[in-house]
Design goal:
Elements lengths: L6 H17 L6 H10 L19 H14 L7 H14 L2 H12 L5 E4 L15 E5 L4 E12 L6 E7 L10 E7 L6 E5 L9 E11 L1 E3 L5 H10 L4 H24 L5 H28 L4 H24 L20 H8 L10 H12 L11
Amino acid sequence: MDFGFSPADDDFRAEARAWLAAHVGGERDRRSWERTLGAAGWIGLGWREGGYGNRTASLTRQVAWAEEYARSGAPPRSGHIGENLLAPTLIAHGTPEQKARFLPPVAAGAELWCQGYSEPGAGSDLAGVRTRAEADEGGRTYRVTGQKTWTSLAHEADWCFVLARTDPDSTRHQGLSFLLVPMDQPGRIEVRPIRQLTGTSEFNEVFFDGARAEHVVGGAGEGWRVAMSLLGFERGVSTLAQQIGFAEELGRVVRTAVETGAAEDPVVRERLVRLWAELRTMRWNALRTLGGSGGPGAPSVAKLLWAGWHQRLGEVAVEVRGASASAGPSDWTPATPYALDEAQHLFLFSRADTIYGGSDQIQRTIIAERVLGLPRERKGVV
């Protein structure tokens, strides 16, 4: 692996750190923060094309920016779906007109996106989508009808990219199209927040009732190819930033273990040291992958590693807190949101880590087929 930071990269890191120190804390809300990032040119560093209001940066500088952002305490990004998923997909498969229309607003932080993939009957089984889109006006537009679920940030988004079935006679991977749907369509799109174990609602159900879509990326019937390409962009530099957050969470758990006396237990100490060592290993594996040495199953391996690790961290977090971690807050009621402490939030939120973004079972299937070359299971045949 050859993944080192040059003196110029260190200068770039210092620039990013200084800018974040000067601006973090002054944001009014997450949408205005996206515009602040865009005005300073910090959106779209990883795009392989510039000229849309973004500046491009080398891989090492993208890593430096992501790590400094995670360390700065800046707000969670509302624009990451548009920047890191939609934009690379448009650059790879979009028309010049689509790039010119959608990339500049993403780079400016002016338009936010959500992802319409999962459905109630087709979560990790993406090929089983039932949302349909019927062509009208000579095939220039589509009317989208169906339901998507677990749609992160749909309540904030201006646009949604939707995988829908445009050929009613097709099955599985065939006959799907990748559509760009404006969310501001009263009476045709309804967003219902899904309340999570933590009491918050970052994701939603989205109902489409004849919603209008004018843009098809990659051509009609090519949705599966485009969707798979997008998933290839899903895990990259952001993994390293995520690990910075993990390290901070681990540090808080260690401090709690010392304060409560739980660290005096050699079994607890062994678990904490193992978590630290595994996190370091994940970092080197991420750098190896970014350096081009990961292989076709690297994203799935990384997802399996961090999802299980984060769940184990949540379990240790409540254990070192002691009995008080099992007591809910005073405002824990079915009708109102409630405030959890850090350990409780970490434990409950991490329960979903092995499901969202591709369940553990799906990741293992990908590794089995694409890395180990194992045959696919067929009905009646194991």
